[in-house]
């Protein structure tokens, strides 16, 4: 009997088939002596739509809500139905004795396979391939150690609960808000509290009142010191007169004295290996990658190039059974530009501490690290190379010693007042020899700033002695101002989502993209901020759904279900109850929605004001009435024609007589008589003449006529 292998994507299926010796290629599967390998196309099956329960639900009506089917139905995704039918036919084959689930080793991958099994009525035994990389070695070892399919039943229950909860909450709240306010308003159990976090930061920024303050600094030859006191430990003086009085007083001092001097040897251990969220944060900080961009590039490194392990992990540690594989992974990296960093590690046993290997902190998947495939760096795109470099260097740092340095703290007495200075001298670069001296601090600049009141923390200090005098000094006041919290970058928002348990590493990027696509938030430079629509939406949504506490509790319960400690039935009962409460509150709300993007233009079909929206093809004007489908470009397209007066490109318009080009400032209009937008250009004319003269022997009369026509056009 053969085994049917179900992969998630055709590309993965082809690699598995090759490793398993399957060479008979068919349209929807690949067959070999022992295996038949087929594939999904992502999801082939999804939850049924409201109209699948009752046709009347195709029309959105507030009175029909909430929609709470007692049993959720499944349906085929129309675009991928042919592939599903092909799998269904394979299922009927009598020579296939078991199914091997080889979809992505995670919650979503389990759901893909199980729903296909349910819709095809698979009743034979099944097993699970659970691997963390796509290398040939990992695939072979995975098939040699297949897991019982039932071992992942709890993971499947958790995935079903997540999908059904999102359907019930997201669909009902979105329909309720849209029907109530006659506008396209989308909300959900994760995206709404994420939007609320952005709105709260915006509120802090707008309510912030900047205050001037002064810092007193002393320039002591080659280094600086900052005044501080017990009453003002941060050194900020908000009273200008008091600051100037202190400066005048201390200007009378004739010398400065080293009152205290303390040197401490400190060390900084290597950063932890990457999980998906931390990698997304780092890529955003360093390269400006969006979270979604990082996910996409990482998936290619995992599937196509087989250079990294499973991407959608929330662990930053390795499991003990991986210890024996680490030297081979380092050996694979013994190529330029990593050879010089790796060779010292290969000469001795690797130092494996709890900071690297900790089974108690590894759930379904370990941290993201390189595989034992030797990289062909020239085959990677620029983005793939950047991301791979981050992962490789973070992996190499795991085996380097801590960064050690001597930190010297000095207190300089000037006129009886203390001035503080810090300096650092590197003793052993340790892991920073791999990454350079750039910071790896996993924090974001999103608290109130003090405009740099500690500019001298990393300066070099000259040799100092306690009690020694420094006669060469100059005092100066620096005026600064308090700053509001910064707007979130994607790195900062990912940190907030992680701390508040909003979504999972695998879903956070999609949540951010969904908020962007629904025009509730927007990117400005490298920051995210709510739009006018988002600001209103958060006021329309019930307070319960804005809170991160509710969705965090849901995520924690889903995790408990996945581990076999939660009750899926009780969870879904609570979801239905909460959905009913949320819909009722929307119906009873008296808050009004006023579209922020209404224009002064009116729809030519129904007279309703037009809204300006962003689309993939640029800005568009759409009718604000849900019953009307009118839409047009907000800005006219530009033609290749230039105005004969101002020489700017002319706009293309359509009128009763056809298309025409117009220069609005000069009010010059020219008809466009063909798809090319007018007569042939001089280059086209020249090319045409050359083509005829080179390839065709013209009669004298025809040649004369053509020449006359071309000359006329040039005139």
Automatic annotation (TrEMBL):
Catalytic activity: ATP-independent breakage of single-stranded DNA, followed by passage and rejoining
Protein EC: 5.6.2.1
Name the record gives this protein: DNA topoisomerase
Family, as annotated: Belongs to the type IA topoisomerase family.
Organism: Paenibacillus allorhizosphaerae
UniProt gene name: topB_2
Signal peptide: none
NCBIfam families the record matches: PRK07726.1 (NF005829), topB (TIGR01056)
Domain of life of the source: Bacteria
PANTHER family found in the cross-reference section: DNA TOPOISOMERASE 3-ALPHA (PTHR11390:SF21), PROKARYOTIC DNA TOPOISOMERASE (PTHR11390)
Gene Ontology MF term list: DNA topoisomerase type I (single strand cut, ATP-independent) activity
Pfam families the UniProt entry points to: Topoisom_bac, Toprim
Region described as Disordered: 436-465
Residues of the Toprim domain: 2-133
UniProt xrefs under InterPro entries: Topo_IA (IPR000380), Topo_IA_2 (IPR003601), Topo_IA_AS (IPR023406), Topo_IA_cen (IPR013497), Topo_IA_DNA-bd_dom (IPR003602), TopoIII (IPR005738), TOPRIM_dom (IPR006171), TOPRIM_TopoIII (IPR034144)
Ranges for domain Topo IA-type catalytic: 152-583
Keyword entries, A-Z: Isomerase, Magnesium, Metal-binding
EC primary class: isomerase
Chain intervals with Acidic residues compositional bias: 441-451
């Amino acid at each position: 009997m053969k085994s049917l292998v179900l992969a998630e994507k055709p590309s993965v299926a082809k690699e598995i088939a090759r490793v398993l010796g399957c060479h008979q290629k068919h349209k929807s599967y690949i067959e070999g002596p022992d295996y038949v390998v087929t594939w999904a196309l992502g999801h082939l099956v999804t939850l049924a739509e409201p109209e699948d329960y009752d046709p009347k639900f195709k029309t959105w009506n507030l009175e029909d809500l909430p929609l709470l089917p007692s049993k959720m139905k499944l349906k085929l995704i129309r675009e991928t139905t042919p592939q599903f039918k092909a799998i269904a036919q394979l299922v009927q084959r009598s020579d296939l004795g078991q199914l091997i689930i080889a979809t992505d080793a995670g919650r979503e991958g389990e759901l893909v396979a199980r729903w296909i099994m349910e819709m095809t009525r698979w009743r034979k035994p099944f097993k699970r391939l659970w691997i963390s990389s796509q290398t040939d070695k990992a695939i072979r070892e995975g098939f040699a150690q297949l897991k019982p399919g039932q071992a992942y039943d709890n993971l499947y229950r958790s995935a079903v609960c997540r999908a059904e909860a999102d359907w019930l909450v997201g669909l009902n709240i979105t329909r309720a808000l849209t029907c109530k306010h006659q506008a396209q308003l989308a909300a959900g159990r994760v995206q709404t509290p994420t939007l609320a976090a952005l709105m709260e930061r915006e509120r802090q920024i707008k309510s912030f009142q900047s205050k001037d303050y002064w810092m007193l600094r002393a320039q002591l030859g080659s280094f600086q010191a900052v005044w501080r006191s017990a009453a003002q430990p941060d050194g900020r003086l908000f009273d200008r007169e008091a600051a100037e009085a202190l400066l005048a007083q201390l200007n009378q001092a004739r010398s400065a004295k080293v009152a205290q001097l303390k040197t401490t040897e400190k060390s900084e251990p290597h950063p932890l290996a990457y999980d998906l969220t931390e990698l997304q944060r780092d890529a955003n900080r360093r390269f400006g990658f969006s979270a979604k961009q990082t996910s996409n590039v990482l998936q290619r490194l995992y599937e196509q190039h087989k250079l990294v392990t499973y991407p959608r992990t929330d662990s930053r540690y390795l499991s003990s059974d991986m210890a024996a594989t680490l030297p081979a992974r380092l050996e694979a990296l013994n190529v330029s530009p990593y050879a010089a960093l790796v060779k010292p590690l290969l000469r001795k046993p690797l130092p494996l501490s709890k900071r690297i290997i900790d089974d108690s902190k590894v759930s379904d998947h370990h941290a993201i690290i390189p595989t034992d495939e030797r990289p062909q760096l020239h085959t990677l795109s620029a983005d793939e190379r950047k991301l791979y470099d981050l992962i490789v260097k973070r992996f190499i740092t795991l085996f380097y010693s801590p960064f050690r340095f001597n930190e010297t703290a000095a207190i300089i007495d000037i006129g009886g007042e203390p001035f503080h200075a810090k300096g650092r001298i590197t003793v052993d670069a340790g892991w920073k020899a791999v990454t350079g001296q750039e910071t790896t601090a996993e924090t974001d600049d999103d608290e109130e700033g003090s405009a740099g009141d500690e500019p001298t923390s990393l300066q070099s200090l000259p040799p100092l002695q306690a009690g020694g005098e420094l006669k060469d000094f100059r005092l100066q006041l620096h005026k600064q101002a308090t700053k509001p919290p910064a707007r979130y970058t994607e790195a900062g928002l990912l940190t907030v989502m992680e701390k508040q348990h909003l979504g999972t590493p695998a879903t956070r990027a999609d949540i951010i993209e969904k908020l962007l696509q629904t025009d509730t938030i927007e990117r400005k430079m490298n920051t995210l901020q709510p739009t006018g629509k988002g600001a209103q939406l958060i006021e329309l949504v019930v307070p319960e759904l804005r809170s991160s506490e509710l969705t965090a509790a849901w995520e924690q319960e889903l995790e408990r279900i996945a581990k076999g400690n939660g009750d899926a039935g009780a969870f879904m009962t609570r979801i239905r109850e909460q959905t009913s409460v949320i819909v009722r509150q929307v119906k009873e709300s008296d808050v009004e929605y006023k579209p922020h993007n209404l224009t002064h233009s009116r729809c030519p079909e129904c007279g309703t004001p037009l809204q300006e929206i962003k689309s993939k093809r640029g800005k568009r004007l759409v009718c604000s009435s849900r019953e009307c489908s009118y839409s047009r470009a907000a800005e006219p397209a530009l033609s290749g024609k230039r105005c004969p007066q101002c020489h700017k490109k002319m706009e293309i318009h359509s009128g009763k007589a056809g298309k025409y080009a117009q220069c609005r400032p000069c009010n010059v209009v020219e008809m466009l008589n063909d798809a090319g937008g007018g007569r042939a250009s001089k280059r086209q004319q020249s090319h045409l003449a050359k083509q005829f003269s080179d390839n065709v022997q013209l009669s004298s009369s025809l040649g004369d006529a053509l020449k006359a026509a071309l000359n006329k056009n040039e005139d």
